[in-house]
Write a structure and sequence with these properties.
Strand content of chain B: 5-15%
Strand order of the largest sheet of chain A: 3-2-1-4-7-6-8-5
Largest interface: A-B, 51 and 45 residues
Number of domains of chain B: 2
Number of helices of chain B: 7
Distance between the termini of chain A: 40 Å
Order of helices and strands of chain B: HHHEHEHEEHH
Oligomer: heterodimer
Number of domains of chain A: 1
CATH topology of the largest domain in chain B: Glutaredoxin
CATH superfamily of the largest domain in chain B: Glutaredoxin
Shape of chain A: globular
Number of strands of chain B: 4
């Protein structure tokens, strides 16, 4: 590797390790706050506030029923829980399916012309009369205790929004298991981000807000199809506190195939980059605390670093392919295959015994440190959400697959950003 | 409701502490890296020692040759480690461009001397005992002024693997080893490179596998023998199958 390339990679790794050490220090600093109930005692039914949960739906015929059923199963007084379903002009059977709830006292059904998820949310917010309002995407289901875990955090008047711990529902495929580990990592990170006042997303599945957040800073925007990300950044830009209720578990259906996962992540990653650029005045600005000085700059830097590493890997691949092509043109394909077999059986076996052939660099040990932190975070994320989860192999799939496929959607997102193009929802 | 939202001030001490810990981790990784580099340097030194020993041993063999009966000599008597050394050197050369340091070039020079020793001993054996080894001297230059050198190396590697008895001696003309200069003069080797010396004759330019087989009919003979042996084996197998 040329010295310039290795210097850039070392620089990239320095910030990555710095970020991880900062996260680790925060963890040890606030360890006692993990899994801790935010108030001295559980709130009684009388003390619980009224909450409206908005369910924006668009062609969700397969999942919407379970989403609503899970909301009805919440351990929360029915008279204090208003469920508002807003159909954003579904063209399938979704609207007919939700009709079965039309006579349920705390459910309101609305249908409007299609305008995008953010318009459905705004429609619900404008019709909301409670002091607290949240959203639940129609591909998610809540744990029965989720709302009871979230509400006590609002005892602190500074807290303006509370996010839950998200888990993948029934991860049974390799892709599902990979996402399971990723979401467990997300649980850990979201808690840490909440502790350092640096959450940059209030996820669609069950983030709860004080209603006056919207009255103060306005409703949802289109925001490059990632309105939940923009809302969090807008709140942060006004110094509104967002925290994480780690014990409030929400299950979401992860994309079942690689293409859908790719589409989802292109939207998320592209949305992050474009929204972060829209709020670029926060980057490296100490006025915005750890979000401005650490989380946003390092996340953006990680994207740049990954793109650089990807670019260099592609360059290396092209050079090696050209050499292989050249070798084939010289000795012929059949002979070249024989050569590869020979190299493998004779050279590699003899090289295996000699230390000299293990060309290990400092980046290897730094990556080892980095991976150890990720493994710890995934394990602890699983632990703090207090969910019995026997999917121990998920971390293996995550480490093996994620680093291979994530750069692809990252590259597409960067490309979309350069072309000023928003990724489609589906 | 509280509309004057405030943010906790940044804890700069924590940032400093993080920097310190990160620096320690980085320092540790670079230290281990340094240790490994040292160990690699020791390996390079051990290659150097092996080459020195081989040169000495080959000189001794050279001296003993006049007293040795040809019965005890075969063409594998010399420098059995040449291939392994060549493998290590080319690995070092390809694994890290910074290996092209003065130390590495010094070892390469040593290695070229060893090759010349091996070659001259082989020539002497040829004269004394009538052995007929297939030897190729390969003179190459830098990538910039020798566009065909890479292709030629591929062909020679292929030949080396296909015909293990073939002895290929490669010389980097950029190193300017005086013994190599003398060898080049003897065989009238002149740029442009690559130049191959086969059976005392110098061939300029790229030679394909077929060209090499035309220059070295012995290779065709070996191919033929292998083909005959192969067909014999398969016919034996067939007859065994029929008997069954």
């Amino acid at each position: 590797m040329p010295p310039v390339v290795s210097s850039i990679i070392y620089m990239f790794m320095f910030f990555l390790v710095y970020y991880q050490v900062f996260i680790l220090l925060t963890f040890f600093e606030h360890k006692h706050e993990f899994k801790k109930y935010p108030t001295n005692r559980a709130l009684t039914d009388q003390e619980l506030p009224a909450v409206t949960i908005l369910v924006p739906i668009f062609n969700e015929e397969k999942t919407v029923d379970k989403t609503i059923a899970s909301l009805l199963s919440l351990n929360y007084p029915k008279d204090k829980l208003q469920i508002t379903i807003v159909d954003d002009g579904s063209t399938d059977n979704t609207w007919n399916i939700v009709q079965k709830y039309k006579n349920v006292s705390n459910i309101a059904l609305h249908k409007k012309e299609n305008g995008g998820k953010f318009t459905a949310l705004n429609y619900g917010i404008e019709n909301c009369i409670t002091d607290f309002v949240g959203c639940l995407d129609a591909d998610s289901e809540v744990d029965a205790e989720a709302l009871r875990h979230i509400v006590p955090y609002f005892d602190n008047p500074e807290i303006m929004a509370v996010t839950p711990s998200l888990k993948i529902k029934n991860p049974d495929t390799i892709l599902g298991l990979m996402q399971n580990a990723e979401y467990n990592l997300g649980i850990f990170l979201r808690k840490i981000m909440g502790l350092i006042d640096a959450q940059y997303v209030t996820p669609g599945p069950f983030s709860i807000f004080r209603k006056n957040v919207f009255e103060t800073i306005g409703n949802y925007h289109h925001a490059h199809n990632t309105e939940d990300l923009e809302m969090a950044l807008r709140m942060q830009s006004k110094h509104m506190k967002i925290t994480c209720a780690d014990k409030a578990v929400v299950y979401t259906v992860g994309p079942r195939n690689l293409y859908r996962l790719y589409k989802q992540r292109v939207r998320w990653t592209g949305g992050f980059i474009q929204n972060a650029l829209d709020y670029k005045h926060m980057i490296l600005n100490p006025k915005y605390g750890n979000l401005g000085m650490l989380v946003l700059p390092i996340t953006m830097w990680t994207i740049v670093g990954t793109m650089f590493a990807l670019g260099y890997s592609v360059f290396e691949l092209i050079v090696k392919s050209m050499k292989a092509f050249n070798d084939i043109s010289v000795v012929g394909l059949k002979n070249q295959l024989g050569e590869i077999g020979n190299t493998f059986s004779v050279n590699l076996v003899s090289q295996f015994k000699e230390w000299m052939y293990y060309h290990v660099q400092g980046t290897f040990f730094l990556s080892l440190f980095s991976f150890s932190i990720v493994i710890f975070a995934v394990w602890y994320g699983r632990k703090i959400a207090n969910v019995k989860d026997s999917k121990k192999m998920d971390i293996v799939y995550f480490l093996m697959l994620y680093s291979l496929i994530a750069p692809i959607w990252l590259a597409t997102s960067v490309y979309n950003t350069i072309r000023k193009r928003d990724a489609a929802w589906r | 409701m509280n509309t004057n939202h405030t943010r906790n001030p940044i804890d700069w001490n924590k940032y400093l502490m993080t920097f310190f810990i990160t620096a320690v981790i980085f320092g540790g990784a670079l230290y281990i890296n340094n240790l490994l580099d040292k160990s690699r340097s020791n390996d390079i030194r051990s290659i150097q020692d092996t080459i020195s020993l081989n040169i000495l041993s080959s000189e001794t063999q050279y001296n003993l040759l006049s007293e040795t009966s040809c019965k005890n000599v075969n063409d594998s008597i010399l420098s059995s480690e040449l291939n392994s050394l060549e493998q290590k050197l080319s690995y070092l050369e390809s694994s890290d461009p910074s290996q092209n340091s003065a130390e590495f070039n010094y070892i390469k020079k040593y290695y070229e001397l060893l090759q010349i020793k091996d070659f001259s001993l082989m020539q002497r054996l040829t004269d004394k005992c009538g052995l007929k080894p297939i030897s190729i001297l390969y003179f190459y230059g830098s990538k910039d002024d020798c566009s065909d050198c890479e292709k030629t190396s591929v062909v020679l590697n292929y030949l080396r693997n296909q015909y293990p008895n073939i002895r290929i001696y490669s010389f980097d003309r950029r190193l300017s080893v005086s013994a190599v200069d003398t060898l080049a003069k003897i065989y009238k080797v002149q740029a442009p490179y690559p130049v191959l010396v086969i059976n005392d004759e110098a061939y300029n330019g790229y030679k394909s596998i077929d060209d090499m087989k035309n220059i070295l009919p012995e290779l065709k003979k070996i191919d033929k023998e292998r083909l005959t042996a192969g067909s014999k084996n398969s016919s034996t197998e067939n007859s065994t199958t029929t008997l069954k």
